[in-house]
Amino acid sequence: MLHPMEEGYTINEPPTVRLVREAGYLGVPVVVAAGYPWVAYAQQIRSVAEQAEGTTIVMSHSGQINISGLAQADAFLAMQTCANLCVGTNGVYRQDFLEECIEVFGPERVLFTSMAPVFDQGFELDRALSIKMEESDRQSVLGANMVRILE
């Protein structure tokens, strides 16, 4: 778990890229507290993902924390560019963004994330449950994807 905003660095600095790449060599996924301007913006995370193609990277907040939705385009482009990027559902302002990610990239790249105890877990679960998707994909998003990534 990397949280550049709390830990005081930029996600695409060379030491961080080396760490993320090493995690991939070890088969360990990386979760990035994403969406923070200047330190962990979706396009910065995309840069890391391009340099660490063997590492599964999960962007919390679906790569955005801007509730206006303006960061959606950058998060979507990052997902489009890098097959090793996944998005977490926590704090996402626009349900249609999650639905579009499932439709375009497949349900295996969308993961339920609660960010508990900071966010209310019940509310975050309701958010994930309300995503319009095939019922056959719901269990993947709600937990099976994370189990697969962590195995």
Question: What are the salient characteristics of this protein?
Answer:
alpha/beta; single chain; 151 residues; TIM Barrel
Explain this structure:
With about 150 residues, this protein is an alpha/beta fold. The chain has a single domain (about 5-150), classed as Alpha-Beta Barrel (TIM Barrel). Helices cover about 50% and strands about 10% of the residues. The protein has 7 helices and 4 strands, in the order ααβαβαβαβαα. It has helices at about 5, 15-25, 40-50, 70-80, 95-105, 120-130, 135-150, and strands spanning about 30, 55-60, 85-90, 110. Strands 1-2-3-4 form a 4-stranded parallel sheet. Helix 3 (about 40-50) packs parallel to helix 4. The longest helix is centred in the C-terminal third of the chain and has 16 residues, at about 135-150. It is globular, with a radius of gyration of 14 Å. The two termini are about 15 Å apart.
CATH topology: TIM Barrel
Distance between the termini: 16 Å
Radius of gyration, whole Å: 14 Å
Order of helices and strands: HHEHEHEHEHH
Q: Give the helix proportion (percent range).
A: 40-55%
The SS-based structural class is alpha/beta
What is the H level of CATH, i.e. the homologous superfamily?
Metal-dependent hydrolases
* Mean pLDDT level: 94
Low-confidence stretches: none
- Share in β-strands: 5-15%
CATH-scheme architecture: Alpha-Beta Barrel
Strand order of the largest sheet: 1-2-3-4
Anisotropy-based shape: globular
Biggest pleated sheet: 4 strands, parallel
